[in-house]
Amino acid sequence: MNSGNIVGTIDAAQIAMITFIGFFIALVFWLRREDRREGYPLEDALTGRLSPEGGPLSAAAPKTFILPFGKGKVTVPNVNRDPFEINAKRRENFGGAPFTPEGDVFAAGVGPGSYADRAKWPDIDAHGNPRIVPMGLVPEITVATASTDPRGLPVYGADGLKAGVVTDLWVDRAEHMVRYLAVDTGGKTVLAPMPMAVVRKNAVIISAINAADFAGAPFPANPGEITRYEEERTVAYFGTGYLYANADRLEPLM
After folding, report:
1. Cα separation of 252 and 254, whole Å?
2. Cα separation, 153 vs 147, whole angstroms
3. How confident is the model at residue 230 (pLDDT cuts 50, 70, 90)?
4. What is the DSSP letter of 43?
5. Could you give the 3-state DSSP secondary structure of residue 205?
6. CA 137 to chain centre
7. Within 13 Å and on the Cβ side, how many CA atoms surround 194?
8. In whole angstroms, how far apart are CA 108 and each of 92, 102, 238, 239?
9. Full DSSP string of 149-199
10. Cα–Cα distance for residue pair 231/179, rounded to 1 Å
């Protein structure tokens, strides 16, 4: 007699549940392998030696990415990458111990002054043009009439002393934002990150570093563009000052 049972003893809901669980486990497995590309393999916290891959969940097969606009190829993970040197030493000999800069704190490369070894070419827009350039190269971008144009205003550092004068604005042509202030320190022009600046009616305050430190800030090798690596070094230089510019910044407030 026909009971009307189409799939017999097969429970379709159970099969769907098992299939979903299997897919989810496979997805987690794939994601954990894919997130181990850039920045891997890991380094030992004390010796700096490369750590072993650590099994199938920690070993992603190398993948090659073709960069746009003829920028070549990048293969990750890269086990043959050059070691990264820092000018600092550990306070204590255990993993996770803080580092103390040695010599020039702005060249230590630790703490708020840390930076990544990014590409040696500019960030580009959808048309292949450098994104961040002096405002004079992008005539369609101007300072809003209701805002203060910082060009020509004096710049003061954390110590209240005059560091220089703003001579130009570097803008992001893709997002129409001011990214850097060009500051003439008296013989040298440097770039200061706009998010670290407070623009007032008659002055610009950049409390990240002292006035004398501005002269050591980096400036792009090409006056009309800034590479991703140069952006890292510029932001790291000013970021260093938030902790190391003055002795009273090294310790907690409480």
Report:
1. 6
2. 14
3. very high
4. B
5. strand
6. 25
7. 14
8. 17, 7, 13, 12
9. --TT-EEE-TTS-EEEEEEEEEEETTTTEEEEEEEE-SS-EEEEEGGG-EE
10. 10
pTM over 0.85: no
Answer for the pair 56, 43: CB distance below 8 angstroms, yes or no.
no
- Residues 197, 211 contacting (CB under 8 angstroms): no
Q: Which CATH architecture has domain 125-249?
A: Alpha-Beta Complex (3.90)
**Cβ neighbours for 232, distance < 8 A, ≥ 6 positions apart:** 115, 116, 117, 118
pLDDT at 7 over 90: no
79 in Cβ contact with 51 (< 8 Å):
no
The vertex-104 CA angle with 103 and 108, nearest 5°, equals 90
Is residue 234 within 8 A of residue 112, CB to CB? The reply is no
Task: Give the angle subtended at the CA of 226 by the CAs of 117 and 161, to the nearest 5°.
Answer: 95
Q: Which of 175, 176, 156 is nearest to 166 (CA)?
A: 156
CA-based R_g, the chain, Å: 26
Over range 19-37, report the average pLDDT: 88
Which amino acid, 36? Answer: R
Cα 241 to Cα 199: distance, rounded to the nearest angstrom: 19
For the cut 80, the answer to whether the pLDDT of residue 85 exceeds it is no
pLDDT single digits (tens) 44-79: 777 767 776 666 666 777 889 898 888 888 888 776
